[in-house]
Write a structure and sequence with these properties.
The complex is a heterodimer of chains A (about 1100) and B (about 550). Chain A is mainly beta. Chain A is built from 17 helices and 59 strands. The longest helix of chain A is centred in the first third of the chain and has 31 residues, at about 1-30. Chain A is elongated. Classes of the chains: A mainly beta (about 1100), B mainly alpha (about 550).
Chain lengths: ~1100, ~550
């Protein structure tokens, strides 16, 4: 079974390889051949055939009017490998035509006698911000005579009369018409069209004009992506599109990012589907959740990102579309001269904020006071520490926050080489990225190469490919703020006498604070993950007859993770290690896709329609393997074979899934006013039982461009308007693999028998997997109401969308009693249960002023979200601090309500402590006094960007914020509670604990009286440390200066821009922790829990403030 | 155009894709529906039933926090203080992870036994082996229910596996019926199990283990006559005796210390060095042991699973009990002064009963510990403490010699659940409660057998000195002999429930021993909140939680 599949894999790889080689060969031929061989042509030849042959063999294209020259005139020739010029001169000498070679390899052939009367016009086209525009259409109005601008934006066109009008048009800009009126130099500045109705938007399995879209699709351009430089494109999505809520749960380079499109549709995996150049990619987060496999894609390679939000847009992805689809299109070459662009930046990152912790003197004083208050003044270590200080004034005073952080460099270099001719285009890029984390021990490095090209073969065949190779090397810190903030400041960092050179807890001053030295651990242990990825996609498209085409896509996504870890022996006081440990692990993920698509496009008077039909097959296999040993010698000798040795253990696993899908879509527009889209996808997934495997996912949407109606023609301020409605059903299949099957566990259950104490493997029924044969698709039905309005000649744009999204039959593990034999949580059977509703309002507002020397644009987007669990079959999904239950938002905070601090001494209760509210009024505090106390999903998410330019200067600023959300400050509890929480003794605290409540002298204080142990087991699950998590962050500010065109021309450059930028300049928030952007803690990886455990700050790796300088160069 | 038609015909063929491609069943692990074919499958399933016992050593299992049965059950007694005072002070709640973990172990174990007993009749194998496997499964089912009934009282009785849907209406059966169910299982086990095993089967449940446990069950229910018959059967079998040093070495204190230590010490343990040329006695599966959890130092693949206790066969006790400031330990449980004081002055000029030296470390003792490295040296370090007075002592019993290994301190100490000294003392207790002896023993003679082994004088002398009656003596002896074997709290509770404490001359109510004990509540542990939620509340909570 397995080998059969492997065989298929190899075949796919071979095809990819062969096509790749062919592509390269073809490209080089078209670029460099100068000589033309026409000897093989049948003689005599017509001019027409001859020119076609030259086109075929060279990079030149001919441009001529049939009626101006007799192209069927036969010519005699006998050349072999002649210069093209020679051929043309000879041939045209005999005719009455002449020719002219233009900059962009166009050869214009015109009648000889006309030439003198014609007027040659030269000019250039630039955009509002001074950039030359390449590929702009320059046409003489009313004719098909035209040209396109070159890389410098220049054009030359020959008009026949001074009365001609030149029409200049370019996608994304308003079309200009300029009468020649005798001018010979025409320079044009194009003004962007904010509505950009002709803009091409990538939708699933095709593209559509923006004006024709009836669903809800957000587009993010490469400019926007590159404005917030980051290793992964997913970070750049933040705040750029309404309805997309992106949380970066950690500032660690390469940490996973959570992306939610239109709320949290399900309690299990609610991340969107990512599709790169048409290939759905594998984005499963590894157990441990520390690797983000999306960082393998270089953001600089991305041309655009389209986020499909409503069901009409996503239903074409059927069973995987319920949580939105993110379509990534990488850069491809365009016709024109070869272009080389280089972009580079270098920056330094800083820790923006620190906790205010006790220093040594305060630490010793605080604990002495604590123990004195509790009648334990003899706690030796504290007394000793203080005595040392009093007597000798000698005491270490380590600031562990400073010690584990650093000013960390980041650098990114990209080189892209692209170009094309009429029949082929190419784009190659190489990039290098390296970032050190601000916490020592964390770093990431990426090297990536990408090649994209397309070729037209004959008239009806087109083939092309996208290939990405990348390598990401990542190191994560072992210990971060959670640990470093709690180490005793009395502990020094280094101790040269110790093995390893670091100091550790123990001894007279720090014995009771047994936190280990985080600097030592981060520096001594070495765990590195290397991730290699190859994404390759090939297509071939055959136009069977006009408008009807067949396309085949073959794609593969291969990822190999290899992990190596070494922990040496070291002496760190009571946290010493006497063993060295070596670990190795590998994980191979392979995904394949074969896709057949048929498309028919037809226009009949007022009716435009496109029909699409397709079939896809996807297969995914994941193989993991890991080993650990305590005996380094054995390890290296035996290389994991013959593992009788008990100190070495190995674990391996394999799983696979597959999907077969049929899809169809009908796009229709009548008079370009009334639009209809309908689609249907049928998916079969191996993840479900054989009788529940197939699901149908229909959708439809309608649009009305009401501004095109007669009765709207008088409303001048409205330039365009469209109403949209959509309805559709999508699915989700993200469940643990093999959910239908009850399994026996044979590798995780053991017992020892016999005189020689041997380990025997047992067979445990249902332990990790209680099957459910009836498990089936989770479905989401979504309605979307939208309106797009553009005013004031498209300067002001407004888009509003309202949606209602109902997810039924959520795929969830049924929390099952251990009485059913399952390892609770891990072995819970998957079931379809309940319903979650998301309703939201999304708003985009853009204003652009793009004339004159000072240009600016303002873009704002905001999303309001209401999430509610409607039905959960009376069940609750409780976690440490959250509860998910009917009538509440997913992952709501749950706990006790702090009543007040007891300040009087009369009540008989201990004063200076907090009291909980007795909600059920039974006179005591029990588990039943908990209630819903907050939410982890924000009410409102918004982004604001401002761009402006003045002459050679440009400036941009981007703000991002969330509102109406809570953070559970878990690290705050540990640092701010003036007692030994969980008996973790004498850990360092916030300096605010010194200001604790004292009768008479400090009665107003809110800090409880220090006690030896936590006075109240419920205080941790209370409102005391639940904080307002709203924030507004200045994500990016950038100031650039570009060389003016004159200078550029002299230097023969297209663009040279320098900029300085700052990331995360400032964050406005009331939150007391380091980082208000607290995501989910993806702990031991089983699906579902990241969603339920959102917004808990366990010492989040804060996002750095980064200052950078960069340059962009194009030539 | 002809070509076009050809293509139009070919395309649908390409589209036809076999649905078989979706038939992807798990290949790594067998499916329950296809398993249970031969005796190997039955034996492997049985191994997984035993396997639940090793989880008790660590049982992280739980999705939040980790659980430690030892810390829980000793922490609530008067023998130990816990670092987390919720056990010492009896302030733990129904959300407690350790209680939860124990619940899970019991019921996962019961599920596996039930599955095995359900499929066994359909598996072809020799009837002798089938009987033995049935006996072992019934013994283990009885044992898991014994843990459950002594911790939670009323419990649902499951004699077959439960589907998730069944559990939404599950109700608790009365404690008496649970006891009856346990008795039935153990009676069957006694019939089916062999007296002993050898070779690779050593460590499996024996007839003696089943008899001893059944006797213990009777005693817990105050069925003293029935209990006495069972203990007599164990004694009469002649399979068990107390581990002692040969007579010629009984002249110095070291012998007495070693004699008792050896019961718990795996002598095969690497690096342990007997300080002179005396013979090694005791060790794992020794003659005194009726049933013990078999452990070695196998470490499960470390991908989080090891921490969660999935199938380690090593003991984590050293990790929890070792000193914080000397070894890698967490030092979660500390001996109380009250236990140390309970030990009488010892023989041969020893300050204390030799058992004290085998049970706790005191300041000034020299810790001997074993380093798991290539040199395999044994190191000595003096035990000094600068911890608070309530954390002065460390537990030594069951974790000696100390093991100083990697982060996951996994040591291979077997863990005795039932031993002969316990049988003798329980038998003495039945006699004190009016049961008759068919083998001519008295409570005093039985206690003295236990005392003699460690050179302690006749118990009559002690009773006279302290004006004690025999009940006082039994209670005293159980405490010093069986400290840290997870008996003390259960003993105090059953004595309190059975009215046995009232027979004493001193300390006649349970709060004399455990001041925070709340009668009517602390006889039982809380049913884990999670289980109540998971069963839609049909599983009711114990009183007071």
């Amino acid at each position: 079974m397995f080998f059969k599949r492997a065989g298929k894999t190899i075949l796919i790889m071979k095809i990819i390889f062969i096509l790749l080689v062919l592509c390269f060969v073809n490209v080089s031929a078209s670029i460099f051949s100068q000589n033309i061989d026409v000897s093989h042509l049948e003689k005599p030849v017509t001019i027409n055939d001859l020119l076609k042959e030259i086109e075929k063999q060279s990079e030149f294209h001919f441009f001529y009017h049939d009626d101006l020259m007799d192209v069927n005139q036969e010519v005699e020739l006998n050349y072999k490998n002649a210069r093209m010029k020679t051929i043309l001169d000879d041939v045209l000498k005999k005719s009455d035509a002449t020719y002219k070679i233009m900059d962009n390899n166009l050869i214009i052939i015109t009648p000889r006698e006309n030439l003198q009367q014609e007027l040659e016009i030269t000019g250039s086209v630039i955009s509002h911000d001074g950039d030359p525009l390449t590929g702009v259409n320059v046409v003489i109005k009313g004719t098909t005579i035209g040209t396109v601008t070159d890389n410098a934006g220049n054009f030359t066109i020959t008009v026949r009369s001074a009365n001609d009008i030149i029409q200049i048009s370019y996608i994304g800009f308003l079309t200009e018409e300029i009468p020649v009126a005798g001018q010979t130099i025409i320079n044009v500045t194009l003004v962007p069209d904010i509505a950009d109705m002709e803009q091409v938007v990538v939708i699933g399995y095709g593209t559509q004009k923006k004006s024709d879209i009836t669903g809800s699709v957000s587009k993010i351009t490469s400019d926007e992506i590159m404005k917030t430089p980051n290793i992964g494109f997913d970070q750049a999505l933040q705040g750029r599109a309404s309805g997309v809520y992106v949380t970066q749960s950690s500032g660690r380079p390469g940490a996973p990012i959570s992306v939610k499109v239109r709320g949290i549709g399900t309690i299990n995996n609610s991340e969107p589907l990512y599709v790169v150049d048409g290939i759905p990619i594998v984005n499963d987060i590894d157990p441990g959740g520390e690797i983000n496999s999306l960082v393998t894609l270089n953001p600089d390679d991305i041309e655009s990102i389209e986020i499909l939000k409503d069901a009409s847009a996503t239903a074409i992805y059927g069973a995987r579309g319920a949580n939105g689809v993110v379509l990534i299109t990488t850069k491809r070459g365009a016709a024109g001269e070869s272009k080389l662009s280089i972009s580079s930046y270098y920056g330094k990152s800083y820790l923006p904020k620190k906790y205010d912790l006790l220093n040594s003197e305060e630490y010793a004083r605080f604990y002495r006071e604590l123990y004195t208050l509790n009648g334990q003044a003899d706690r030796a270590n504290i007394a000793t520490a203080l005595d040392l200080y009093d007597e000798r004034k000698e005491m270490y005073d380590t600031d562990w926050q400073d010690e584990i952080t650093r000013v960390a460099p980041v650098q990114d270099h990209n080189l892209t080489f692209s170009g094309g001719r009429e029949f082929s285009n190419y784009s190659f890029s190489g990039s290098y990225f390296k970032q050190d984390g601000i916490i020592i021990g964390s770093e990431i490095e990426r090297i990536s190469i990408r090649a994209n090209s397309d070729f037209q073969i004959k008239k009806r065949i087109k083939i092309g490919e996208s290939i990405l190779l990348s390598k990401v090397e990542q190191r994560n810190e072992e210990l971060g703020f959670f640990e470093a903030t709690r180490v005793s400041p009395l502990l020094p960092v280094y101790d040269p006498d110790n093995l390893g050179g670091y100091a550790g807890p123990g001894g007279e001053t720090t014995a009771r604070n047994d936190m280990t030295n985080p600097v030592a651990i981060n520096n001594l242990t070495d765990e590195v993950t290397n991730m290699y990825r190859m994404m390759a996609n090939l297509y071939a498209e055959l136009e069977i007859f006009n408008g009807f085409s067949y396309r085949i896509n073959a794609g593969s996504d291969y990822t190999f993770h290899s992990g190596d870890g070494f922990t040496p022996r070291y002496d760190l006081g009571i946290r010493s290690r006497n063993l060295e440990t070596l670990t190795r692990s590998s994980r191979e993920k392979k995904a394949y896709l074969i896709e057949h698509l048929l498309k028919y496009t037809k226009t009949l008077e007022n009716h435009d329609f496109t029909i699409l039909g397709g079939h896809t097959y996807q297969y995914y296999i994941n193989e993991t393997w890991s080993a650990v040993t305590d005996s380094v010698d054995e390890f290296t000798v035996i290389k994991f074979s013959g593992l009788e040795n008990k100190k070495t253990s190995v674990n391996d696993d394999m799983n696979e899934w597959a999907m077969i899908s049929y899809l169809g879509r009908f796009l229709y527009s009548y008079k370009d006013k009334y639009l209809l889209t309908a689609s249907l996808r049928r998916d079969g997934s191996s993840r479900f039982g054989s009788n529940k495997r197939w699901g149908n996912f229909p959708s439809f949407s309608v649009g009305w461009k009401f501004s095109k109606e007669e009765f709207m023609s008088n409303i001048g301020f409205l330039s365009s308007g469209k109403l949209r409605f959509s309805w559709g059903k999508t699915g989700n299949q993200e469940i643990k693999l093999y959910a239908p099957y009850s399994q026996i566990n044979t590798d995780r259950t053991y017992y020892v028998f016999g005189t020689s104490q041997e380990t025997y493997f047992g067979a445990a029924p249902d332990m990790f997997q209680k099957g459910n044969k009836d498990i089936q698709w989770e479905t989401t039905i979504q309605q979307n109401y939208g309106i797009d309005l553009y005013f004031l000649n498209n300067k002001l744009g407004l888009n509003i969308d309202y949606y209602i999204k109902k997810t039924d039959d959520m795929l969830m593990p049924l929390p099952t009693s251990s009485m059913a034999g399952v390892l609770r949580t891990f072995g819970d059977p998957w079931i379809n249960i309940g319903r979650v509703d998301n309703k939201g309002l999304e708003l985009n507002l853009t204003y652009r002023k793009l004339e004159g020397e000072f240009n600016y644009s303002v873009t704002a987007n905001g999303s309001i979200l209401r999430n509610k669990v409607v039905d959960l079959d009376d069940k609750e999904y409780r976690r440490d601090y959250t509860n998910t239950a009917e009538g509440h938002t997913i992952g709501s905070f749950y706990g006790f309500i702090i009543d007040e601090m007891i300040r009087d001494t009369l009540s008989g209760e201990t004063s200076g402590t907090y009291k909980m509210k007795d909600l059920n009024q039974d006179g005591r505090i029990t588990e039943d006094d908990q209630t819903f106390i907050g939410k982890s999903i924000p009410d409102f998410v918004y982004g604001l960007s401002f761009d402006c330019s003045y002459k050679i200067f440009d400036f941009s600023m981007f703000l991002y914020g969330i509102q109406g959300v809570h953070i559970y400050n878990d690290i705050g509890i540990k640092l701010g509670s003036p007692y030994n929480l969980h008996n973790e003794l004498d850990q360092n605290k916030l300096s605010s604990v010194l200001d604790y409540w004292k009768p008479e002298t400090n009665e107003g204080s809110d800090v409880p009286v220090p006690t030896v142990n936590e006075p109240n087991p419920y205080i941790e699950r209370s409102t005391l440390w639940l904080e307002n998590g709203s924030f507004l962050r200045i994500k990016n500010m950038q100031l650039g200066i570009s060389l003016p065109d004159k200078t550029l021309n002299k230097l023969n450059l297209d663009k040279l821009r320098f900029y300085i930028a700052v990331q995360n300049l400032y964050t406005f928030t009331k939150y007391s922790g380091l980082e208000p952007e607290v995501g989910s803690e993806s702990s031991v990886g089983w699906v579902g829990d990241p969603t339920l455990n959102n917004g808990i700050d366990k010492g989040t790796f804060p996002q750095a403030r980064t200052f950078m300088i960069g340059l962009q160069l194009e030539l | 155009m002809k070509n076009i038609y050809k293509i139009l015909i070919i395309i649908p063929l390409i589209f036809a894709c076999s649905e078989d491609l979706l038939d992807l069943e798990p290949t790594q692990q067998p499916l329950v529906e296809n398993y249970y074919k031969d005796e190997n499958d039955a034996l492997a399933t049985l191994t997984s039933c035993y396997g639940m016992l090793t989880w008790m050593e660590f049982f992280g299992v739980i999705d939040e926090g980790d659980g430690r049965y030892f810390m829980l059950i000793e922490g609530v007694s008067d023998d130990a203080n816990t670092e987390s005072t919720i056990y010492s002070d009896l302030t733990f709640t129904a959300a407690d992870g350790d209680v939860d973990g124990m619940f899970m172990i019991c019921f996962n174990g019961i599920h596996r036994c039930n599955k095995l007993l359900e499929v066994l009749p359909g598996i072809e194998m020799s009837s002798g082996l089938k009987d033995r496997i049935t006996g072992e499964a019934k013994f283990l089912r009885g044992l898991f229910y014994w843990f459950a009934v002594t911790m939670w009282g009323d419990m649902p009785i499951f004699d077959r596996i439960q589907e998730p849907a069944d559990l939404r209406t599950v109700v608790r059966d009365p404690e008496e019926e649970v006891w009856e169910f346990i008795e039935d299982n153990l009676k069957d086990a006694i019939e089916l199990l062999p007296e002993s095993y050898s070779g690779s089967d050593l460590g499996r449940a024996t007839k003696g283990a089943a008899r001893g446990l059944l006797g213990k069950c009777y005693l817990y229910q105050a069925k003293y006559e029935d209990a006495a018959r069972m203990f007599e059967a164990v004694i009469e079998s002649g399979n068990y005796e107390l581990v002692k040093y040969p007579e010629q070495y009984h002249k110095d204190s070291a012998a007495y210390k070693n004699a008792f230590q050896s019961v718990f010490m795996p002598i095969a343990f690497k690096g342990y060095k007997i300080t002179d040329d005396r013979p090694a006695v005791g060790g794992e599966n020794n003659i005194e042991s009726l049933f013990e959890v078999q452990l070695n130092n196998y470490v499960a693949p470390f991908d989080g699973g090891a921490w969660l206790g999935w199938g380690n066969t090593g003991s984590h006790r050293p990790l929890f009990l070792n000193a914080k400031n000397l070894l890698n330990g967490y030092a979660n449980v500390f001996p109380t002064q009250s236990l140390v004081d309970e030990f009488e002055p010892g023989p041969l000029g020893m300050h204390k009963d030799p058992r004290k030296y085998a049970t706790v470390w005191d300041v000034g003792d020299t810790l001997e510990y074993d380093i798991e490295d290539s040199t395999q040296n044994t190191y000595l370090r003096p035990y000094t403490t600068n911890l608070s007075p309530d954390q002065h002592y460390l537990i030594k019993k069951t974790v000696y010699p100390l093991f100083y290994g990697a982060d996951i301190t996994v040591a291979g100490y077997n863990w005795i659940l039932l031993r002969y000294a316990d049988i003798l003392l329980m038998y003495a207790e039945t006699l004190d409660n009016g049961a008759s002896s068919n083998i001519g023993e008295t409570a005093v003679s039985l206690i003295n057998r236990v005392r003699e082994r460690v050179g302690m004088p006749d118990v009559n002398q002690l009773m006279t000195e302290r004006s004690w009656n025999i009940t006082d003596a039994i209670i005293h002896e159980r405490r010093v002999e069986l400290a840290y074997e997870c008996n003390r709290f259960r003993d105090l509770v059953r004595w309190h429930k059975n009215g046995y404490l009232a027979n004493k001359t001193v300390g006649t109510v349970i709060t004399d021993y455990i001041p925070d004990f709340e009668a009517g509540k602390h006889e039982y542990f809380p049913i884990p909140t999670k289980e109540i939620i998971l069963t839609d509340g049909t599983l009711t909570q114990n009183n007071g939680y």
